[in-house]
Write a structure and sequence with these properties.
The chain has 159 residues and is of the alpha/beta class. It has one domain: Dehydroquinase, class II (Rossmann fold, 3-Layer(aba) Sandwich), CATH 3.40.50.9100. It is 34% helix and 18% strand. The protein is built from 5 helices and 5 strands. The longest helix has 15 residues. The chain is globular, with a radius of gyration of 16 Å. The C terminus is likely disordered. The structure holds 1,3,4-trihydroxy-5-OXO-cyclohexanecarboxylic acid. 1,3,4-trihydroxy-5-OXO-cyclohexanecarboxylic acid (DQA) binds next to loops.
């Protein structure tokens, strides 16, 4: 199996997972989640690099670097920047690397300002509402997407 390199990005306040609003975000820390992603990644042929920042520009820098680092796919929980950041959207559109948007909570069942995502329409997929498991589901989906045979427009029906 070829190994794909996955960048996992976490936005502001996600360094506080475990103690932050556990009713919304559960009790697992970011370290717990990263360990689970690395373990699942091993079984799926994915090498995981994880990065968290409370700063929009640092996330933009990390997205831009993904090209020179030969990243094959991105899992991103932009946290509050989901709802505001044209800069993160533009960075992701600039690099042409498939990405999955992740949320621990179901953003659609919460305050109205969380219902809109600046990224979702450009994402390969979106996973929300499964707590820490959202990240693992995103990884599984991305692995299938990256390892599937190339889609072609060829017509196999002979017509
Ligand atoms: C979040 C949802 C966002 O609305 C919020 O600002 C976060 C976390 C989630 O994972 O559920 O910080 O992205």
């Amino acid at each position: 199996m070829t190994t794909s390199h996955i960048l996992v990005l976490h936005g502001p306040n996600l360094n506080m997972l475990g103690t932050r609003e556990p009713d919304h975000y559960g009790s697992q820390s970011l370290t717990d989640i990263t360990e689970k992603m690395i373990a699942l990644g091993n079984s799926l042929g994915l090498e995981i690099t994880s990065f968290q920042s409370n700063h929009e520009g640092e996330l933009v820098d990390r997205i831009q670097q993904a090209v020179s680092e030969n990243i094959d796919g991105i899992v991103i929980n932009p946290a509050a920047y989901t709802h505001t950041s044209i800069a993160i959207r533009d960075a992701l559109l600039a690099i042409n690397i498939p990405f999955i948007e992740v949320h621990l909570s179901n953003i659609h069942s919460r305050e109205e300002f969380r219902h809109h995502s600046m990224l979702a329409d450009a994402a390969t997929g979106v996973v929300a509402g499964f707590g820490a498991t959202s990240y693992l589901l995103a990884l599984r989906g991305l692995a299938e997407f990256l390892h599937q045979p190339q889609q072609t427009t060829e017509n196999h029906t002979g017509v």
